[in-house]
Amino acid sequence: MNSHPDQAELALLLEAIAQTYGYDFREYSEASLQRRLVQWLSRSGCSCIEEARSRILGDPEVFEGLLRGLTVNVSEMFRDPQVFKALREQVTPHLKTYPFVKIWHAGCARGEEAYSMAIVLEEEGLNGRYCLYATDVNREALSKAREGVFPVKDMQLFTRNYQQSGGRSSFSDYYTARYDRALLSPLLKQRMVFASHNLAVDHVFGEMQLVLCRNVLIYFKKQLKDRALRLFDNSLAPGGFLCLGMQETLDGREIAPRYREIAPGTRIYRKGYQ
Ligand SMILES: C[S@@+](CC[C@H](N)C(=O)[O-])C[C@H]1O[C@@H](n2cnc3c(N)ncnc32)[C@H](O)[C@@H]1O
Questions:
Q1: Beta-bridge partner residues of 243
Q2: Is 252 part of a structural domain of the chain?
């Protein structure tokens, strides 16, 4: 496509996508979404926005391709190691007081964060007493997450993050390297459930002791941020924890009065008992 579609044309396309597929991108921050949509449109071989529109709406496979292009699935194991250190040292002691713990990773990408959490929980003695629900809107990312296979070149960074997060073992105990791929230990996924869940349209997930949604809200506009935060609030048991990304905060949000940050700058909030 030679010329860029204007804002009104994009808005109409997003509206039609929401009506046809139930995926609502209308409340995503415009700058990043527009850039990604324009990139996809120029790769699509469509000569005009009308052609793109009819292909996307007429062919679910074309739409799946677009969906992959619109969502950002970048992640790391033990991303922001200081957060995993705080989860290990300040959150797991509370989790250990429950007979069974349920944790929701919303926007789990390829599962990096959920696998990291499984390692923390195993090392901190919650063996077998937890279930990790890892959800995402991107089905391709979810199927990668289920495989638990990562490029072997990523292991150096993951190992460094693991060590900085207070890992108690050797990170190499958790994977087997085969040529250029690293297979995470199947034991880690025994207590994981991967499922499709869209924060823009789907509903509450169950009663959780910890919800992690990191580096997802940054892509949302205010209304969608508030919707997602309401879902987390309704999913969390009193005394439960909410962990956001380093650039995300509850400041000024509707649910903020019920939460306090466990330590400044951790972006881990605890829900009060009312
Ligand atoms: C940048 S990744 C963050 C991954 C991980 N939480 C982390 O912090 O490293 C953002 C993820 O949010 C997912 N996502 C975007 N919109 C979503 C929505 N409406 N519902 C659920 N997940 C969504 C994307 O597919 C992507 O996997």
A1: 212, 268
A2: yes
The answer, yes or no, to whether any atom of ligand 1 lies below 6 A from the CB of 124, is no
Fill in the amino acid letter for 73: N
36 with 111: CB under 8 angstroms? Answer: no
Pocket test for ligand 1, best of 17, 136, 161 (most atoms within 8 A of CB): 136
Structure token digits, residue 240: 């439960």
Boundary-marking domain end, from 26, 51, 70: 70
pTM recorded for the entire structure: 0.94
Residue 150 backbone dihedrals phi, psi, to 5 degrees: -130, 160
The count of domains in the chain is 2
Taking the centre of ligand 1 as the mean of its atom positions, its distance from the CA of residue 108, in whole angstroms, is 6
Q: Give residue 241's domain range.
A: 81-271
- Whether the CB of 144 sits within 6 Å of ligand 1: no
CA-closest candidate to residue 207, choices 133, 139, 135: 133
Q: How far is the CA of 72 from the centre of ligand 1 (A)?
A: 7
What percent of the residues of the chain are helix, what percent strand, and what percent coil, each to the nearest 5?
Answer: 45, 20, 35
2-54 pLDDT, tens digit per residue, is 557 778 888 899 999 999 998 889 999 888 888 888 888 888 888 888 888 99
User: Which of 18, 36, 70 delimits the end of a domain?
Assistant: 70
